[in-house]
Each structure stands twice: as structure tokens, then as C-alpha cells.
Amino acid sequence: MTLRVVEWSTGTVGRHAIAGIDARPDLDLVGVWVSDPAKVGRDSGELAGLGRELGVEATNDRDALIALKPDCIVHTAMTDDRVMEAIEDLIFFVSNGINVVSSGPVVLQFPHGILPDSLLERIEDAGRKGNASLHVNGIDPGFANDALPLAMTSLSQRIDEVRCQEIADYSTYYQPVVMRDLFGFGQPMDATPLLLAPGILSMAWGSVVRQIAAGLDLVLDEPLLERVERVEADRDYSTVSVEIGKGTMAALRFEVAGQVDGVDRVVLEHYTRTHPEQCPQWPSPNDGDGCYRIAISGEPEMAVEFSHHGEHGDHNVSGMIVTAMRLVNSVAAVVDAKPGLVTALDLPLVTGRGLVAGR
């Protein structure tokens, strides 16, 4: 059965989602939403950089897209700076009977214990009303720290700690709002960017820790612990998103740790550089400019390093691709899922069915 899909945004993730929808034989792109008036009326294939037209013009008319009654919306619009507004958008979609896979807000990856019960019940009520499902995922938070580590734990005899790491150079990551306003790169060392305000790390990445704990049947101590190390620029650095002056923040390491009886059991850890020469004392990827590393302490000791890079670009380009494709490849499973909020714990095995070259 072919599923009718609307792509919501054509930015750094959305353009790759359009390419992915076009590549899957079981998905049919029927509409594309854009926020930029200059993109309205342009063909989606052009906006995705495919070098050919797809016959679907972009629009900023929300009601017209809802009237198409698609089976699913692939929602990749920016949500980091409009979390509650984005949640209202998602509630609107599912209440109108449209399944949604979305890259954000990331807290919805596993919001239990983070968002108020009243808000979660609104999402569930909307899903029941519309008989539609909502799944929020990506690569991180997402596959690299939910499906991958939980699959690895199926090999364990005893688990002492599950640690999920992102180790990356963000110098070519184009998201100015995220880089400067949220992370704080290029800001004075005494500034407090949004991400480092008390409790925000636990909201943004606590969903990772809580979902792994739920998958392992753990009851965590409250609250989650946040550990932060900020690194000052020893010289001027230039990135595609922000200029980083000497003496401002240039690198960041943080942890969100879930403990049981005062002992770390599930840890999300990020090492974020804005130049590959920074912080040589920190771990580095074995392959390329960035990786996800899963380390499970116990019996046996296990570690997996997952790296990626684009065919014609760096790891930040491929990071957008894998984020988009985790959503696109999940569409059929989410359409078949129970109404309401669906997490990685609820989905069957998701694969790249239909994408083998030459078919």
C-alpha cells in the first residue's frame, strides 16, 4: 500500500526528507509546507536540490495541506526556539486524523517524567480523537541513543552502566540559533546560554536517559544529574554558524546522568568541539569528524562506535540525512501504531525497505 505524505519544511533536514520520501516506493509526496514566502510556489524537487521537478509545489497554506488528508506528515521544522508552539502544531495534526513523525521537540522522544501529565494527556486525547499517532525521533535524541543501545543490551548478562556519547566537530554544522543562542558558542564565558540554564539539559536529553531506563525497567533517582564543562577559545575560530572570538566559549562537554541509589546507571554524554584541534584530552572519533559511541559496562563489556559521512559532504551533512531518514523510514510503522504518542519502545524493527540501489 502506498502512503500519502506531506513534508513540513524544506530546511537542513526537510530537504533530505523530501529526497527520502521520493526514494521510497511505498510513499507518495502529496504536499510540502514552507515558512519562507519566497519558497511558495516552487517545486519541491528544486527545493530539495534533486535537480528535477517532482510536480509538488510548496505552500504556506496549512489548511490546504490538512485538506489533502495525508496518511502522515513528516515534520522537520525548527522547534528548538518554539517548543510549546510546535507541540500545539503536532496536537492539531493528530487531532485532525493525520499521523506524524517529527524531529522535534526532542523532549517528546520520551516525555514521561519531564512534561506535565496534563500536557501528555492532551496529546493522547488528540491521538484518540483523530485515531492518529505521533512519533518524535531522529539520530540524537533518537536512534543513536534509543534503538541502538537498547538493542545492544539484549546481549548483556549483567548491566552496570549504559553510556551514550556524541563526539563531534560542529564547525560545519549550520544552525546559527542552535550554535550561538542555545549552546552558547561565541558567547562570553560568564554568559548562561539557554541549554545551560538549570534543568534544560535534563529536559532536552533527559528523555534519552529516561527511555533507556524504562527499557531496562529501572526506577531512577530524582532529579537527573547535569554535569557541564565549558572550554574557552585560545584563539579566534570561524564556523559556518558563528564567529568565536578568543576568550569566548568554544567547546562544551555535558552529561545527563540517571542514577539508582546514587550510582550512575544510564548516562548521556556529549563532546562538542568547534574545531578538530580543540581539547585533545577529550575522546575523538576513530573514523571521521564525528561519531556516536555506546559503551555498556557489565558482563560482557561492550562498545560500538557508529560514524557516518555524506557521499559528497561531511558528517554534519550526513547527520541531517540520517535524522531525516530515521523519520521517513518510520512512517509505515507509525501509521500502523496505536493512536497517541509512540516511542521507540513501541515500534517494531524499522528498516530501509525499498531503498536498495538499482531496484
TrEMBL record:
Matches recorded under Pfam families: DAP_DH_C
UniProt keyword Nuclease present: no
SUPFAM superfamilies, per the entry: NAD(P)-binding Rossmann-fold domains
Keyword Phosphoprotein: no
Domain 2,4-diaminopentanoate dehydrogenase C-terminal: 145-350
GO molecular function per UniProt: kinase activity
Keywords tagged on the record: Kinase, Transferase
Alphabetized InterPro entries for the sequence: DAP_DH_C, NAD(P)-bd_dom_sf
Name the record gives this protein: Diacylglycerol kinase
Organism field: Gordonia jinghuaiqii
